[in-house]
Specification:
The protein is α+β, with helices and mostly antiparallel strands and about 375 residues long. The chain has 16 helices and four strands. It has two domains: about 80 residues, no CATH class; about 220 residues, MetI-like fold. A four-stranded antiparallel sheet has the order 1-2-3-4.
């Protein structure tokens, strides 16, 4: 008697496109590394008040204080479970040189009471992640990354400066991509004289070097500009505040870089506007705006996601350049570019090299975005083989 034949195993259910994309992305170690680094940086910026031990604008007399060494073993070789620091005493006032005073230990405590702030702008609290036990009474502050020329904690300023530098990249790219998609979609859909006029304007904008255009716009929209006085309701002789300068820089960076995006979107819309589903929507009486937004622009999302991820570092560097040149964010509000502005002299670089710490954060952020952008490009590639 013959054995009953077994049914062949059922084929695996087909994966959705997004599951395929996520699978490719999760297999890319560099993309995951970039995403995790960016996650840590943005969370640190959002909760900067909690993670930083001091207010970023609070000054002290410890000018160019070197970074503290976190210790577990004291001067006598005894091990301590709780980390601590030693006080640094100034040994040369002229050269701003410090020496370690090992006469007393200052333990590092967690979830301490510090200067008051509003968590996420909603809840008033004094709780901070860490601080120095007994340091306030003895005038001792902990400097993980050192202090600047005004005695302000660089670690606190780096975290708060990330709010400016990191958010400018995201908001600026949103403005750029929105304008590029709208102009490119309209130009590619209508073609003819509309396409001719729009693309000539785009080419004129792209022919001007980006940095020079940014500097020209920033100079033209200075505090004495009548347009800004009208826009921000400034009184006679009143200057722009930090928040207004921030909005101005975001607008300038967002309005400068959309030309290239518009040209690419136009080409993609020209390639799909005569497909059957677009003709069907047109024959059913759909409006031009609905066809562009619902049927044409979604076909460009793959390019937009990848392009936006790779372009964010350029906007961060744009803010850094403006602040470094002294036409961006102004004191005392911290930003990474403004903090680098303090390290322009050779004397500062040789006596306080830790002042360049914001440059390390800029370097890491740019590489993280590039890693993530390269990973997204490979994951969204329709020609990639599974």
């Amino acid at each position: 008697m013959s054995e009953p034949t077994q049914d062949p195993p059922a084929p695996d259910a087909p994966k959705s496109p997004w599951r395929i994309v996520m699978g490719r992305l999760l297999r890319n170690r560099f993309a995951l590394l970039g995403g995790m680094i960016l996650g840590v940086l943005y969370l640190s910026a959002i909760f900067a008040n909690f993670f930083s031990p001091y207010d970023p604008e609070t000054s002290s007399d410890t000018t160019h204080h070197p970074p503290h060494h976190i210790r577990f073993v004291d001067q006598e070789g005894k091990f301590h479970l709780r980390p601590f620091i030693y006080r640094y005493a100034m040994t040369d006032l002229l050269r701003r040189a410090y020496g370690v005073d090992t006469s007393e230990r200052y333990p590092i405590q967690f979830f301490v009471q510090g200067e008051p702030y509003r968590l996420l702008g909603l809840f008033e609290t004094r709780r901070r992640l860490f601080g120095v036990g007994g340091g306030d009474q003895a005038g001792v502050r902990i400097y993980l990354l050192g202090s600047d020329w005004n005695g302000r904690d660089l670690f606190s300023r780096v975290l708060h400066g990330g709010r400016i530098s990191l958010s400018i990249g995201l908001i600026g790219i949103m403005i750029t991509m929105s304008l590029g998609m709208l102009v490119g979609g309209i130009s590619g859909y209508f073609a003819g004289w509309v396409d001719l006029v729009m693309m000539r304007v785009v080419e004129l904008l792209m022919s001007i070097p980006g940095l020079y255009l940014i500097l020209a716009l920033r100079a033209g929209l200075s505090g004495d500009s009548p347009f800004l006085h009208w826009l921000f309701r400034l009184e006679e002789g009143e200057h722009l505040g930090s928040g207004q300068i921030y909005l101005l820089i975001v607008a300038i960076l967002g309005l400068v870089g959309w030309g290239g995006t518009a040209r690419v979107i136009r080409g993609q819309v020209l390639a799909v506007k005569e497909l059957d589903y677009v003709r069907a929507a047109r024959s059913l009486g759909a409006s031009h705006l609905r066809i562009i937004i619902r049927h044409l622009l979604p076909n460009t999302f793959t390019y937009v996601i990848v392009s936006a991820t790779l372009a964010v570092p350029a906007y961060i560097l744009g803010e850094v350049a403006l602040s470094f040149l002294g036409v961006g964010i102004e004191e005392p509000t911290p930003s990474w570019g403004l903090m680098l502005h303090d390290g322009q002299t050779l004397h500062t670089l040789t006596s306080a090299p830790w002042i360049l710490v914001p440059g390390v954060f800029i370097f890491v952020t740019v590489f993280a975005f590039n890693f993530l952008g390269d990973g997204l490009r490979d994951a969204l590639d329709p020609k990639a083989v599974e």
